[in-house]
Amino acid sequence: MASVKLNAPSSHWIGGGRSLNRRFAFRTEIPRAVTIRAGSYTEELLQTAKSIASPGRGILAIDESNATCGKRLASIGLDNTEANRQAYRQLLLTTSGLGEYISGAILFEETLYQSTIDGTKFVDCLRGENIVPGIKVDKGLVPLPGSNNESWCQGFDGLASRCAEYYKQGARFAKWRTVVSIPCGPSALAVKEAAWGLARYAAIAQDNGLVPIVEPEILLDGDHAIERTLEVAENVWAEVFFYLAQNNVVFEGILLKPSMVTPGAEHKEKASPETIAKYTLTMLKRRVPPAVPGIMFLSGGQSEVEATLNLNAMNQSPNPWHVSFSYARALQNTVLKTWKGQPENVETAQKALLIRAKANSMAQLGRYSAEGENDEAKKGMFQKGYTY
Ligand code: 13P
């Protein structure tokens, strides 16, 4: 592909250590004498990433595939129809005031093209709250032949043209989730495949104006100790960054979605938020360049309160990135149970969403306390072999 050299210096603010307070914010110069792809959206990618990684805000992930959304709806006795999926997403995306705590929302393709019952496009609801619309672009996991019962992520067919279409529809960032299983090895083949796939996707997304969220989820499954998770996470992220660099991905225009470094879900001892923060930050500091603007964790089956406490613990000291959340289950669980599919519960369910979003916003700033949290929010949501 043709490339260009830009000469003028450029600079932008990135999210350094804003978690405690703004004293730690710093200005990063982006030397422009680097080779970038012709016709690329580099400036816009930087702006999008910066807007998503803004203080006290994080991502609402509601990009469940229709099959996974169906499981959620079934848990409250609803059928998996387009009308029910639309009604649930409308509840979430029309919550007034959400933009104070939420900077981006990841949507499934169906939702990106849907509107509210009275005809307002969901993307416009988001823009009205200063929330950036995002889109899941992977096509899910399939078995990886030659591996140890592991999987790989599909979605490359037509990816560039799909990304271009999603951009036209208003999406400005993308997500690709692949998984790594510790009990299955992980094999060198599975790690390499995950890392290469993420890097290829990231380059294609950036080429089409979408900030890629890079998500190699290390599943919670297993009875291993936290040290083993650290070892695997370091290995996975080393490979991911090696291939991101090989694919000329602009690091300032990506966001990461890592799993927190925790013991396996079936390990005999649970780790405290302080321990999880210590191990997770150790891994990030060893592997993630400070050029990356935002680290947006997944919740991975932790309870709502656990996920928030762990994020809060990570923001007790300054770090080079915006360390925040991109939760699905840990933002939606109470909301869904409050709604129960009943129109008269919509308002209370929206309040429940605001409560969770605000709690995580406080955790992003390092100021969350779990005081007053109810028992439901403390229930773990781990499921063996979870699919998204
Ligand atoms: P959870 O927060 O439920 O683990 O969501 C994972 C995810 O990839 C959502 O986009």
Please provide a written account of the structure.
One of its GO terms (molecular function) is fructose-bisphosphate aldolase activity. It is found in: Plastid, Chloroplast. Its EC number is 4.1.2.13. The protein has 388 residues and is an alpha/beta fold. It has one domain (41-378): TIM Barrel, CATH 3.20.20. The protein is 39% helix and 17% strand. It contains 12 helices and 14 strands. The strands form 4 sheets. It has an 8-stranded parallel barrel with strand order 5-6-7-10-11-12-13-14, surrounded by 7 helices. Helix 8 (226-246) links the parallel strand 11 (211-218) and strand 12. The two termini are 34 Å apart. Mean pLDDT is 91; it is low at 1-28. Bound molecules: 1,3-dihydroxyacetonephosphate (13P).
